[in-house]
Prior knowledge:
Blueprint: H1 3-18, H2 22-32, E1 41-50, E2 56-64, E3 72-77, H3 81-93, E4 98-103, H4 120-132, E5 143-148, H5 150-157, E6 165-171, E7 182-183, E8 186-187, H6 189-200, H7 211-223, H8 235-240, H9 245-251, H10 259-262, H11 267-270, E9 278-284, H12 288-300, E10 306-313, H13 317-336, E11 346-350, E12 355-359, E13 366-373, E14 379-381, E15 390-397, H14 420-423, E16 428-432, E17 440-454, E18 458-468, E19 474-485, E20 491-504, E21 509-515, E22 543-549, E23 556-562
Parallel strand pairs: 3-4, 3-5, 5-6, 9-10, 10-11
Antiparallel strand pairs: 1-2, 2-4, 7-8, 11-12, 13-14, 13-23, 15-22, 16-21, 17-20, 17-22, 17-23, 18-19, 18-21
Helix pairs in contact: 1-3, 1-7, 4-5, 6-7
Amino acid sequence: MPWGLLALTGLAVATLSLAIGPVRRRVIARLLGLPAPRFGVHARRGLETPTPDGPRLIADLYEPDRAGVYPTVLVRTPYGRAMEGSLVGHRLAERGFRVLVQDCRGCADSSGVFDPFLDDAADGVVTLEWLSGQPWFDAAAGVAMCGGSYRGFVQWAVSGATAPLRALAPSITAADLPLSFWRDGALTLQAMGEWMTLTAESGHEHRHVSFLRRQLRASERIRTLPWRHLPLRTLDERVVGREISFFREWIARPDPEDPYWTARRHGERVAAFDGPVQISTRWHDLFLAGALDDYQRLVAAGRSPRLRIGPGGHGDFRSAIGELRDDLAFLEHVLRDAPHPWPTRVRVYITGAKRWRDLPAWPPSSLRERWRLATDGQLLPGDTGPAPRGAVGQFRYDPLDPTPSVGGAQILSAPVADNRALEARDDVLVYTTPALERDLELIGPVTLRLGVATTAARAQLFARVCEVDGRGRSRNVCDGVTTFRGDASAQPVTITLGPLGHRFRAGRRLRLQVSGGAFPRLARNPGRDVALDIATERELVAADYTLTATETTPCALELPVFDEP
């Protein structure tokens, strides 16, 4: 959903929330698919949490309008607490929770300087300690955290804290969220630029500007971002008119083990949390892979987390409402001993089939089917005829006329689109199966194995799986990218795509794309040197790529075919 429409929808719900009366509360509940509200809501504004180094963190408390013992839910946000209070604070308070919605350091009314990802662990722990000493806090009822995106990341930042934290419900996020801005050596330029623009409108210098006005203003800027500007290091000046220090740091640090990143990532904290966790993500979310890493960390530590993978991309409002419903059920389960509505601990939405599937674990058991890339653009089952040898495709990637991005995992744009115009370009190789004779349901990661020769010193390949319907429309399902040192001789290259949960219907076709990039979703590959600094690079060099099948390295796509019990 476009950000402007999302903001307008949120404004409508917020406006209804401000209206007094049980009838209107029931109308909102019905619109959002939530259980009927049980209470009115009382709000306490401007509560202050002091920090040891001086800044004061400002929050609003939403609570039922009748005295009682209520669990507390903490939400910390860099986007301004007003809208979060209307959309989440009121909804949970109406159902018997106290909800503290706090502005992160340097955002909205909280003082200090916002340095993304750096202060959230310390500030979150201080907030939990402060909260546990408040006269309205019910220690026996406990406290949990919920929220998505950055509001989910801050949960992992405090996941090593001691009591009173009892449960976490992070959505569309990851404990190592900052690393998602570099994907397998490729800079996710569009997401980084969009997020820089959005957060530039959320600082405390904009605290008197309404949420709707800030987001619409940011949305207008995003539509005209100068993606081709070089060097990338000064893109911030073109976009927001000033230097954004964190943006310049991010684009200059591709190494995930750089001390700058290790101080801002919390993957090592995940296994330290031994309370209940429900992770929610989406098939086209920018942070999907990181969320699944967090799930696996918990499983490896002997925990039993819940996992929800829904449809949509990062900015999908309908998906957010579905996550709110499931988060409410989870909070009722862990804080009030209510039964959880899922029959298993993993629930995934199967796109194409438009249905939810309950699984005992992630990833589920699957059969690996291999499909070969053929010289005539076909994608054939691995047991069909002799395997091809030699070149199965060639293209030239020119960063001055970069292969464009169409759909995919971004922050605001629609994630699924018709790819036909993209596939008609000379710099995109396309391989398509015959019409499927039966439904093909795939759940899990997809692997593409290639032999690649290239003239690029710094090589990059982008691959995508699409579904082609009877009218020839080609819609993207999942994709992946890899960056590697180029060589004029064919070398083995592996690209991991997805994961996905999709049913390809009988009669439709599965299509594979291979290209040299997806701009501006991914920054242009300069092609000159593996060790170059993308942030300051000004010279862009075109490169030729040849996909070559050998006896030891067949060019093949490996698919996770779900084996239904």
